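Protocol step 4 of 6: structure prediction from sequence.
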Amino acid sequence: MAAEGTNNGVKTVKDMPLSGKDVWYFIQSVDAKVGEPALLPAHQTDGSTSIEGDVTDEQTKMGRVLAPGTNEDSIEITNYIVPGDEASEVIIKAKHEGKQVKVWRVQVDDRLAKDEGDHKIFPAMFGYAVVESADLSEGQDGFVECDSTLDIIGKLVDGDFPLTQEQVDILHKIYDYERPGEKTGEFTDSTETSGK
């Protein structure tokens, strides 16, 4: 007698996809003192995370044999250079000096946030990285762009990244509202540091 088939059903998720604008990359020098803030590369335009690695792939008389190999994760960040952008300076200096950098990939989406006291935590991946390259490109009519490739030592590690609402707001806006006559001069970027 044939065994009856089993139907365990299916699992689906129907919601808006995670937006690329809600994924942020943060950098820190390995020389940073304990308690120093993470650095946000200015005007990030693009980012990608590659979860890669070799596999052992052999042919035998019985067929193909596959086994997991080493991890080769990497992160690529593209941003426009702003004078005083410490994050880009950290990456370039690390490349020149042969030092590592710390990098975080953070999904800043309220659907994923969890409360932790006076701030929220967001899903993140973290790794120590060796800077493979930091390519600067300057076109006559465009902005100076930095495209950095960071090769992760070992593999990216899952965790969470703390952000206050003030810090989240800084990520999503260029300047604050002001009333007439409150300030003088043109808009320029300025370094904003939001504490703990």
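Step 5 (inspection) to follow. The chain has two helices and ten strands.
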